[in-house]
Design a protein that fits this description.
The structure is a single chain. A 4-stranded antiparallel sheet has the order 4-8-6-7. It has a 3-stranded antiparallel sheet with strand order 3-9-5. With 285 residues, it is α+β, with helices and mostly antiparallel strands. The longest helix has 27 residues. Bound molecules: zinc ion. Zinc ion binds next to helix 6.
């Protein structure tokens, strides 16, 4: 991860705790005490800090997650566990030698962590994690988090429940990709991106969406035109606006609801307040 990141835009809902302008510079990041980790920006991190020994927060480092940045490559074990405070990170698996042969197998947002494979051990991971939409985040070394898992049962339970939830989500997506039409998968993908970004404006090109779904760009363009014709979205250059989320949910496959239900079943975070924050912003997704 780049240590020399330039100033980054912070999601509006997360901006107040920094400097009020929505911007954080590397210098400001260095001066921000780990003790000032803002509650509510990442419920998993909240839950971990609620149970961690006094002083462990000093292990955390505020970082800028920059679009296009690879947080860890395929074939390596993640050196850090990253807790995003916004944005969107894709976990990609290569399905062939071509440059565009990577397919998205999971989307990560501020209710997640990056580097889950490293929670289980230091073996290499088969997927790559790449930042699609930038945001600030906190990170700690994977070794440090593994020590917490070994010594604090509540943290072991919290993080293993997250790993279990992620596995269930991956199983559902595997079924989705083999059974459901592109149009329905596209609706599901847009709703999942909305959930991660907590925005109805999604900054993605047709090319990008096609690569994430593992299909041809022309097929995505046709599918977008169909749902745009039904006034569910508006698709312009490099941007998709969700116009009618309720009807978009109806047009999506049932996997969208199943994934949301799975996330609710594995609610994480400290006490009821954290559980509430872990609930996705969208009623169905
Ligand atoms: Zn599906």
């Amino acid at each position: 991860m780049s240590e020399n990141s330039i100033r980054v835009r912070i999601p509006e809902s997360n901006a107040a705790f920094l400097n009020g302008s929505g911007l954080v510079s590397p210098l400001e990041a260095q001066s921000l005490s780990p003790r000032s980790v803002p509650a509510g920006c990442n419920p998993l991190l909240d839950g971990l800090l609620a149970e961690a020994p006094v002083g462990w927060a000093d292990e955390l480092e505020l970082v800028s997650l920059t679009p296009g940045e690879t947080l860890f490559p395929a074939g390596a074990s993640p050196t850090h566990i990253v807790f995003p405070m916004g944005g969107l990170i894709s976990l990609l698996v290569r399905s062939g030698p071509a440059a565009n042969a990577e397919v998205e197998v999971a989307m990560v947002g501020r209710h997640d962590l990056v580097g889950a494979a490293a929670l289980l051990g230091a073996e290499p991971s088969a997927h790559r994690a790449v930042v699609q939409v930038g945001a600030p985040g906190y990170r700690a070394s994977a070794a440090s988090v593994r020590r917490l898992i070994e010594t604090v049962p509540a943290i072991r339970s919290l993080l293993l429940r997250y790993v279990r939830m992620s596995l269930e989500e991956a199983y559902q997506l595997a079924a989705c990709n083999s059974r459901h039409s592109l149009e329905k998968r596209l609706c599901r993908w847009l709703l999942q991106a909305h959930q991660r970004l907590e925005s109805d404006t999604l900054p993605f090109t047709h090319d990008h969406i096609a690569q994430m779904l593992g299909v041809r760009r022309a097929s995505v363009t046709v599918a977008l035109h169909i749902i745009e014709g039904e006034r569910l979205i508006r698709s312009t250059r490099g941007r998709v606006d969700l116009l009618d989320r309720t009807r978009l949910q109806m047009a999506a496959c049932e996997c969208c609801g199943a994934i949301a239900q799975n996330r609710r079943a594995f609610s994480f975070g400290p006490a009821a307040e954290g559980v509430e924050r872990a609930t996705p912003a969208c009623a169905t997704c």
